[in-house]
Amino acid sequence: MDLDTARQELEEFIPHVKNISDSSIKKMAGRDLMRFKEFKKQGIAVKFGRFTQKENKQIQKNVEEFLSITGIDSAEKLLFISRYPEDKDTIHRLKTEYHFCEKISEGIPRPWRLIYYRARKMFDPNNYKGRYTKEEKEKLKKYQALHGNDWKKISELMSRSNLSVAMKFSEIKSAINYGPWTKEETQRLMNAVKEVMSRKLKAENPSSLSSLEQSDPDPWIDREKLYQPLPWTVIETKVGSRYWRQCKQKWNSILTSKLTRGQQLRRGTNGLEAKINFIKRLYETKAEDASEVNWDELCDAFGDVPRAYVQTKFYRLKVSSVPLWKKRSFSEIIDYLYEKKLPELEEKL
């Protein structure tokens, strides 16, 4: 199949395919296209976003079955070959012989690359190792001074994942200010967000920038919902005085304020009605996992608010209303809110 045909056929399943490189298109044509067509016959759409518990279990099953049929003795060897140079050739041969790409993606309607990355995250023993000690932070600063931003090298030295060491160093090097945001900091954040969004819009569709240049000072605010996630480490650098997570939280609060235009969303009758409507609509989704919820579609339960506001509202609702929520599944939490909390709110209203 030629490149143009592959890109055209993949476009049915991947809306952003025009932004994918030619080399990636070739790989997807070989690894994914036939799988996508089979899922279509079954009425199953290709998915993106967070992996569900069901998908995680399927990945675990696929990996364990592949280990069983090949005799490779650990998922770490299978997914992190560079850590085992003496076994490299044997593992490569077994992966080719037993069709590793097809096996690991079995039963999961997602691009192979995303499934592979998810498997690596799940089976990397260097993930989820808890807080960094003072000694580890000092080591991280030393290794970064020696090796720059070679996070793969540093992760091996630290026995932490690439992402973990990169994000922790970003936090360490930031001149973090824990006090209230000043007007100057807030303006730098606004400018940084506008700049990165404008650059992205320009790269994807130059004509779309016209809406950013109208007389209305905030026309670009509404665009934020369409371009998630934002590159927060880049924005952090431009702000200069805040850690990336602080920037993200502040931006979400700014966005909520801009979009709600001063509406009273959290008080009195309006607040009760919003919670009641939200719980009912969340229950109607019949979602088994948070990643199955289209949070954007629930935003108007509270008004014209961003997704982050709705997710924060849900978090606070479950923490304050659902006993032992950490031990319950997502669907069990929703059922409890609907069966127990909803009648209480309706009576109060």
TrEMBL record:
GO terms for molecular function: chromatin binding. Residues 124-161 form the HTH myb-type domain. Residues 124-172, 173-255 form the Myb-like domain. GO terms for cellular component: nucleolus. One of its GO terms (biological process) is termination of RNA polymerase I transcription. PANTHER family: TRANSCRIPTION TERMINATION FACTOR 1. This is TTF1 factor. It comes from Chaetops frenatus (Rufous rock-jumper).
